[in-house]
Amino acid sequence: MTGTRTTRVLLSALALLAPALAPAQVVRGVITEVNTARPVAGALVSLLPPTGDSVIVNVLSAATGEYGIRAPSSGTYRLAVKRIGVRRYTSAPFDLGDGETRVSDVRIDAVAISLPAVSISGLCVTRPRDLARVASLWDEARTALEAADISLRDRLIDARLSRYAAELDPSSLQVRFDWRTDAQLMVQQPFTSPSGDSLSATGYWRQLPGDSVEYLAPDARALASNAFIRDHCFSPAAAPRNRPDLVGLAFQPARDRRLPDIRGTVWLDARRFELRFIEFRYTMLPDIPNADRVGGEVHFTRLASGAWIVDRWFIRMPQVIVLPDDWPRRQLREEGGSVVAAGIEDRSFATLTGVLRDSAGRPFGDAVVRAIGTQRQALTGPDGSWRLDSLPVGGLSVVVHADGYDAFGVLAGARRVELLAGRTVRVDLRAPGAAALRNEVCPVTPRPFTTQRRIPRGVLRLLMVDSATTAPLPGVRFLVSWPATAENAAADSAQERYRQAVTDLRGAATFCDLPTGFPLDVSVLGATGSRAHVMLATLTRNGVLNRVITGRVAR
Predict the structure, then answer these.
(1) Residue 106 bridge partners (DSSP)
(2) Has residue 249 been placed in a domain?
(3) Is pLDDT above 70 for 445?
(4) Mean of the pLDDT values across residues 378-402?
(5) What is the share, in percent, of the chain residues with pLDDT greater than 90?
(6) In this structure, is the dihedral angle defined by the CA atoms of residues 12, 18, 19 and 22, taken in order, positive or negative?
(7) Residue 136: phi, psi to the nearest 5?
């Protein structure tokens, strides 16, 4: 895989030298280390005007250290080379004629052990005494952001992309349910983002017609933009106690910023000053519970070829769902993904192990244990044991999928854990029993006082999936009815003998407090009011019955 990417970069450089309809002005050469003469992969090479810091065009050096950069026209330029953790090299001005190829080999230092000093015009800092350190940290972060943008622009990465969506408890962040899809492709932008100028002009979240709100996550290009620098003030941030390997750069909207924005922290490796991840939260949100949880993270990594990628990301948004009998429940919806590419440099990872048991305490085998936001999963053994290796450090959620529970539209287990580099954490899980499942889909509420005799009640759970893809089908309306008999007439009015429910994002429709011991007629209601019989079902006393229905629904 590394050789394939290297060939692609070299061919791009050679293509610049090939005859064209119009003459091309090219600067090419090799980037090497001063003392070892080893090639430097992934150095940021830029053409600058004779004065000022504005970049005309930039590329990354290949695994061999070679680069080729084409000027838009003849003229006077400077060549700049930046390697993360090392002072930027900038050449003296030089003239480049029509169709000229200029060879400029550059030797730069190895990774430094201290931050190089830089100056950035227009940089806002919370405390003036922090200006030098803030400028140096931001220059290192911005170099990685620009490299990630170039890697995507020049299609330097072959990778596997996995996307997911999850429902979270807003206070504990424990996963209530999740979905995942995989795709093998040449990675384009892992998530779409407007430009930095657009985000500056319209804000990072906005109200849409109706009750919808759109939340926008900045990508590498938006974060590296001059607009992002203009709209934010920066300050050094102390590393978390469990992450002494990090050094932080906090950012917040400038005082004159009047639009919804983001605040957060840029985290870099404390030794090499390579960008690790950016965490952010949205500002100016309405008064909602757990507003500080609404935001996201974008994680970066460098490949051996020198290319940079976003290897993990997520965004959390508030969501209100309506449970049976119009009970509202607030939760967070998290959407994100992960990328796996050949040549990711060695990192410190963590390991999770544990045992899964059923509600009676017996080993639970053949269940899938998955780490949310990664592509790591394992199958539990006959003794219920499982193990997940090479997990990223920090907060992570682990969930369990099992056939009987998936058919019910719930998880067989979930836990949020905090992982430390090089550590193994044990997490034992227990699958919920029937009573817990019943309370999950139909929260217990006091019944109104009545002198009438009530017959035992039960729960019916319907899961609607696409017959071709098994994907959940939300928005399908079901009708359940049961006959009026002498036994239930005193307890149920005519209206109560008919119930409707619409499938949620899991594809599940739930009917709580249904009579037991009577045949229930289940039908699908069409958009025009048509009614199609699906099945008959009978509930047992205080029981929970679930059924999976497959089909294609006309919209």
Answers:
(1) 31
(2) yes
(3) no
(4) 94
(5) 46
(6) positive
(7) -65, -45
Amino acid present at 373: G
Number of H helices, E strands in the chain: 7, 36
Residue 144 lies in a domain: no
Q: Among candidates 220, 216, 315, which has minimal Cα distance to 259?
A: 216
The tokens 């169709």 sit on which residue?
A: 99
324/268 Cα distance (integer angstroms): 46
Say whether pLDDT at 455 is over 80: no
Average pLDDT over residues 508-531: 85
pLDDT above 50 for 11 = no
What is 92-146 written as a DSSP string? PPEEE-TT-EEE--EEE----SSPPP---TT-EESSGGGHHHHHHHHHHHHHHHH
Which amino acid, residue 339?
A: V
Q: Are 56 and 75 in contact (CB under 8 A)?
A: no
How confident is residue 446, by pLDDT bands cut at 50, 70 and 90?
very low
How far does the chain reach from its first CA to its final CA, in angstroms? 44
Are residues 367 and 472 part of one domain? no
Three-class SS state of 224: coil
Do 336 and 362 share a structural domain?
no
Q: Which residues contact 121 (CB under 8 A, 6 or more apart)?
A: 53
Are 332 and 397 part of one and the same domain? no
At residue 423's C-alpha, the angle toward residues 421 and 428, to 5°, is 130
> How many domains are there within the chain?
4
- DSSP assignments along 492-520, one per residue: --TGGGEEEEE--TTSEEEEEEEESSSEE
Q: What is the pLDDT at residue 261?
A: 97
- Give the CA distances from residue 512 to residues 187, 307, 444, 542, in Å, rounded to whole numbers and listed in that order: 45, 54, 10, 10
